[in-house]
Amino acid sequence: MVPGQPGQVLSQLVGPPGPGQNRCAVLGFPIQHSLSPVLHAAAYAELGLTDWRYDRFAVDRGELAEFVGSCGPNWRGFSMTMPLKDEALDIGAVSTAARLTGAANTLIFDGDRIVVHNTDIEGFWRPLVAHFDVASAADVPIESAVVLGGGATARSAFVALTTMGVADITVCARTRAKVEAWGPMFEATGVTPRITDFTDLPESQLLIATATKGAADQLAERAAASQQIVFDAIYDPWPTELGRVAAEAGRVVFSGLDMLVGQAIAQVELMTGRTIAADVLMTAGRAAIAARGESV
């Protein structure tokens, strides 16, 4: 598989690559829905990075190593989504956050080496830092939280909560054994959560839902009644039933777009060395979703 080969590039934002152009992309399968090209292109435009481009490529499980190995010297990094977040750990040096969660969503070409990172963690705490207008994740005034789900995104949500200093955490999952396997993560963070059934939703200040589309619909009314803040990691379609009911109940609601923007800010910094304001990416993301007929 060769980057740029016909049939593999699903989005070309500025035409064929130019000589010396810095290249980045999002990889995964399926990948057509990804908003990452919109967000990163908006960042490049705002920062005046005219020699940077960002695409999307369909890369399925088992294909990542071959794809990365075929990249030339003008490649700077990749965003990665499912089903590549665990496979990426075998590609290069692993950051502390990626090793802790057992999931990587970012690959950086760093000279002669490759480093994989997890910026999904930042995707969860950055919007909360902005909402509470505090200096850092450690200053977010959340004392109790619930994580709904047991997959890679749930692990990132859990670590984000511990980064914010939350010690009272409940993880509600369909498969208890999946969460019990997080033992090394509990030891490293110093936080051991309560583990309950998926539908056993306790009262807390913050709910982070990482379940697949529609899975949390049955809990919408209960969540709206028992949670002060609802953060649903889904952004398409939006609003989800959980997001809609929580908003109608007057709860503070964050969507998957908030998370996507938060983690993209960190990716742009890793890939380009430049910092971008969240509102630039949020505006671009909302416009793209509106063009699809959805709303955020």
For the largest sheet, list the strands in their spatial order.
1-3-2-4-6-7-5
Distance between the termini: 36 Å
Low-confidence stretches: 1-15
- Percent range for β-strand residues: 15-25%
Mean pLDDT: 92
Number of domains: 2
Itemize the secondary structure elements and their pairings:
Blueprint: E1 9-11, E2 22-28, H1 36-47, E3 52-58, H2 64-69, E4 75-80, E5 93-94, H3 96-101, E6 106-110, E7 113-117, H4 120-132, E8 144-148, H5 152-163, E9 168-173, H6 176-180, H7 183-189, E10 194-197, E11 204-209, H8 220-226, E12 227-232, H9 241-248, E13 252-254, H10 256-272, H11 278-291
Parallel strand pairs: 2-3, 2-4, 5-7, 8-9, 8-11, 9-10, 11-12, 12-13
Antiparallel strand pairs: 1-3, 4-6, 6-7
Helix pairs in contact: 1-10, 1-11, 4-5, 4-10, 8-9, 10-11
Give an account of the 3D structure.
- The protein is an alpha/beta fold and 296 residues long.
- It has 2 domains: 9-118 and 261-291, Leucine Dehydrogenase, chain A, domain 1 (Rossmann fold, 3-Layer(aba) Sandwich), CATH 3.40.50; 122-254, 3-Layer(aba) Sandwich (Rossmann fold), CATH 3.40.50.720.
- The protein is 36% helix and 22% strand.
- It has 11 helices and 13 strands.
- The strands form 2 sheets. A 7-stranded mixed beta sheet has the order 1-3-2-4-6-7-5. Strands 10-9-8-11-12-13 form a 6-stranded parallel beta sheet, with helices on both faces.
- A hairpin with a 2-residue loop joins strand 6 and strand 7 (113-117).
- Helix 1 (36-47) crosses helix 10 (256-272) and helix 8 (220-226) runs parallel beside helix 9 (241-248).
- The protein is globular, with a radius of gyration of 19 Å.
